[in-house]
Design a protein that fits this description.
The complex is a heterotrimer of chains A (181), B (410) and C (168).
Chain A: E1 14-16, E2 19-21, H1 24-33, E3 38-42, H2 45-54, E4 77-81, H3 89-98, E5 104-108, H4 109-114, E6 135-137, H5 144-160, H6 169-177
Parallel strand pairs in A: 3-4, 4-5, 5-6
Antiparallel strand pairs in A: 1-2
Chain B: H1 7-13, E1 25-29, E2 41-47, E3 50-57, H2 65-69, H3 74-82, H4 89-104, H5 110-138, H6 142-163, H7 183-208, H8 211-217, H9 225-230, H10 236-239, H11 247-250, H12 271-298, H13 315-320, H14 322-332, E4 340-349, E5 352-361, E6 368-372, H15 374-378, H16 382-386, H17 391-401, H18 405-409
Antiparallel strand pairs in B: 1-2, 2-3, 4-5, 5-6
Chain C: H1 2-17, E1 23-25, E2 31-35, H2 40-49, E3 57-65, E4 74-82, E5 87-95, E6 101-103, H3 112-123, E7 126-128
Parallel strand pairs in C: 2-5, 6-7
Antiparallel strand pairs in C: 1-2, 3-4, 4-5
Helix pairs in contact in C: 1-2
The chains are: A alpha/beta (181), B mainly alpha (410), C alpha/beta (168).
The complex binds iron/sulfur cluster.
Residues 44-46, 82-83, 109-111, 116, 140-141 of chain A line the site of iron/sulfur cluster.
């Protein structure tokens, strides 16, 4: 069996003898999207599926997310997996606030996305009530394939994002609407 | 009780490591610490690197299971039980079905019992795989984890053949299973029995006589059998202290009395013993699966009790036949009145006695359902177990106790 | 034979505590007993100490709320177990909502600590003599006791389940 190493394609640009010109956005996007450092915020059952995703069988490392960053300060992607109770809400928010820009959020599983089967007084009905979410992965729990798909959608977002987005007025408004400092 | 020292007494005896004029350091471990696999918060008082006192805060994923259960008919409670100890969901499912059957007085055929036993033991193996390999990770051996986790994936595949789900299985019905095990189940289980033991042996060899591992785990987090009983410990953690209390033998349910197996016990109740006990339990479980498999295959193919009032009609009937559809609806919505009564039924969960206390007032939902969650009960002992030990030991002890957040916080 | 067992427990308890009690065995083989609140501690201690019965393992402790039972709305259910004799005993005690006070049994069983805290958290039952009776699962700021019947299960903040969406 020959090895099938896949390289990510170069972005659109102008190529010639000894040079290649493209937009800064595209180059940065390409680099960013293939080197996401996820912060696994695994609270319950979905976290076990994340373990499956990380381990040898599904191997999230194939998508450039080999290194789990357990400190929020060095993470790019916050993966929230599992039920977030109201007691946990402030902690999650603090973790989000500690992450450096640019940052993305992936809500894995029904609980993180909407509270799931736990429509109760103690469970936060979706983490998007306290922090902005980029991609939702449905399922209770989602299969590892789905989680990977979610990461790939995040990669798409990351790849297409303008370097200036985080400085824009629109983004500032979004953060303000969540009262994120 | 007299044997227990109060914290003050303990502190008075403890020689200070750091200079006495320096106050104890307070260290906040958690709630989202990478080493604790889940949401546990401990506020530790440290003397140098030694733990003087630990104070736990739990409830970070409290989901109000018991409140939900009071508003759901019996069939709709099964998915809740999945999410208690999600590392071994089928045991919880079966335990719940057994409880309801006990209330209703349903007698299941032997083959159903054996099928259940097989599934439960697979779940136990799956749970112990996680616990022990994570213990390896916490002592610095990640390789073993990635290696044996493959086999947990394989168990998922068997679950998938049985019920279509991997983790939160919602498996089985009141009175049996929704369908018979197909050939792939048997084939895969046999392959599992054949190919998993050598892998596990290899994993065990990696750690069992490993100097680093032994130094890290021996004599850490030890607890005496007496204290363990007082703390309500059950399951492998209690057996590691040298007490052979196992519900499968003690109060056999689900025809466990027909199987031939042993209960491994430890002696000192430390982390190493818990590791070894779990290892041996995996072996015993494999032997039970083997026995169950033989019996299931040789018996007449029944897979549910003849119980039209609670056993759901087959799906293909429901789609074609009005009678069946009505029954399906009635059962799912709890329109059939259960008897009035109170039952307590316990099964040997992967980490202890998983009890269901069900009070029915004859209505469509339980009047009260209380889960006796083993983690919640034995995690109380943690401060006593880590007192006087190093910070890094606390992580190992917590990991070897196998505290599952979903079960802890209900 | 079965009756003798229940009678035996009664006898032992009578000798140890000097109080009358009646033990029955229910249809599922469990011994059951109902006690007034002030006898709980003495009875559990007697059961714990008696070497012959050996009910020295507290399996479970939980609360229950039944608003229809006037004056006996709140109930605490204790399950104790004798590992040597393979028997289980269920003890129930009732109290009214106005005075939800029970003796704490943490002095006998270390494990009762969290179980009592949980029961307090859910039902507001105060366990007198508990070393540290705080909420355990819910947030400290909470004022209600969520497992009481009148407390709604659903999160009140959800808009997608508003009445108008169901035509109510
Ligand atoms: S979505 Fe389902 S599997 Fe995931 S944490 Fe919630 S209950 Fe568990």
């Amino acid at each position: 069996m020959g090895s099938e190493i896949k390289m990510s394609n170069a972005p659109e640009g102008l190529a010639g003898q000894g040079f290649f010109a493209t937009t800064l956005d595209a180059a940065v996007g390409l680099a960013r999207k293939n080197s996401l450092w996820p912060l696994p915020f695994a609270t319950s059952c979905c976290g076990i599926e994340f373990m499956s995703t990380m381990s040898a069988h599904y191997d999230l490392a194939r998508f450039g997310s080999e290194r789990l960053s357990f400190t929020p300060r060095q993470a790019d992607l916050l993966m929230v997996m599992g039920t977030i109770a109201k007691k946990m809400g402030p902690v999650l928010r603090q973790v989000y606030e500690q992450m450096a820009e640019p940052k993305w959020v992936l809500a894995v599983g029904a609980c993180a996305s909407s509270g799931g089967i736990f429509d109760t007084y103690s469970v936060l009905q979706g983490i998007d009530r306290i922090i902005p979410v980029d991609v939702y992965v449905p399922g209770c729990p989602p299969r590892p394939e789905q989680i990977i798909e979610g990461v790939m959608r995040i990669q798409d977002l990351v790849g297409r994002e303008s370097v200036r987005r985080r400085n824009s007025e629109e983004y500032r408004k979004l953060m303000e609407s969540y009262y994120v400092k | 009780m007299s044997a227990m020292k109060t914290n003050q007494e303990f502190l008075a005896e403890l020689p200070r490591l750091a200079r006495p004029e320096i106050p104890y350091t307070t260290l906040n471990l958690g709630p989202t610490h990478p080493a604790t696999h889940g949401i546990f918060q401990n506020v530790l008082q440290m003397d140098g690197e030694r733990i003087v006192h630990a104070e736990q805060t739990i409830g970070y994923i409290h989901r109000a299971f018991e409140k939900i259960a009071e508003r759901r008919p019996f069939y709709q409670i099964t998915p809740l039980t999945d999410r208690l100890n999600y590392c071994s969901a089928p045991i919880n499912n079966m335990g719940w079905h057994l409880t309801v059957e006990k209330l209703l007085g349903i007698k299941t055929p032997k083959r159903v019992d054996y099928m259940r036993v097989m599934v439960m033991e697979l779940a136990r193996v799956a749970d112990h795989i996680i616990c022990n390999s994570i213990l390896g990770v916490d002592t610095g051996a990640l390789t073993g984890f990635t290696y044996v986790y493959q086999w947990r994936e394989f168990i998922y595949e068997i679950y998938e053949e049985i019920c279509g789900a991997r983790l939160t299985t919602n498996m089985g019905r009141i009175g049996g299973f929704e369908r018979d095990f197909n050939d792939i189940v048997f084939e895969k289980t046999r392959r599992f029995l054949r190919e998993f033991p050598p892998v596990w042996q290899e994993f065990e060899d990696l750690l069992l006589r490993n100097r680093i591992f032994m130094d890290r785990t021996m004599e850490t987090g030890a607890i005496t059998a007496e204290r363990a009983l007082n703390y309500g410990m059950t399951g492998p953690n209690l057996r590691a202290c040298g007490l052979d209390y196992d519900l499968r033998v003690h109060e056999p349910y689900c025809s466990y009395e027909d199987f031939d197996f042993q209960i491994p016990i430890g002696t000192t109740g430390d982390t190493y013993d818990r590791f070894v006990v779990r290892n041996e339990e995996i072996r015993q479980s494999l032997s039970i699966i083997q026995q169950a498999l033989q019996r299931i295959e040789s018996m007449e193919k029944v897979f549910h009790a003849e119980e039209e009032h609670y056993y759901l009609p087959p799906k293909q009937e429901v789609y074609r036949n009005m009678e069946a559809l009505i029954y399906h609806f009635k059962i799912i919505m709890g329109e059939i009145d259960p008897p009035v009564g109170e039952v307590y039924h316990a099964v040997e969960g992967a980490n202890g006695e998983l009890g269901f206390y069900l009070v029915s007032d004859g209505g469509r939902t339980p009047f009260r359902l209380h889960f006796r969650r083993p983690c919640f009960i034995y995690y109380q002992a943690f401060p006593e177990m880590v007192r006087g030990q190093l910070l890094s030991d606390a992580i190992v002890v917590m990991s070897s106790l196998n505290v599952i957040a979903g079960e802890l916080d209900a | 034979m079965e009756d003798n067992k229940a009678g035996h427990i009664e006898r032992v308890l009578r000798n140890a505590t000097g109080l009358e009690c009646s033990v029955i065995q229910d249809a599922y083989g469990m011994f059951c007993m109902e006690l007034p609140v002030n006898q709980i501690y003495a009875t559990l201690l007697a059961l714990y100490r008696d070497p012959e019965l050996g009910f020295n393992f507290l399996t479970d402790l939980c609360g229950m709320h039944d608003p229809d039972k006037r004056g006996k709305e709140l109930c605490v259910v204790y399950h104790v177990q004798s590992m040597t004799r393979r028997e289980r005993l269920r003890i129930k005690a009732f109290a009214s909502e106005d005075q939800p006070e029970f003796p704490s049994i943490t002095g006998i069983y270390a494990t009762a600590n969290w179980m009592e805290r949980e029961t307090y958290d859910f039902y507001g039952i105060r366990f007198l003599g508990h070393p540290d009776l705080r909420r355990i699962l819910n947030m400290d700021e909470m004022v209600d006791f969520p497992m009481r019947r009148e407390f709604p299960l659903e999160d009140p903040l959800r808009e997608d389940k508003a009445d108008y969406q169901f035509g109510r």
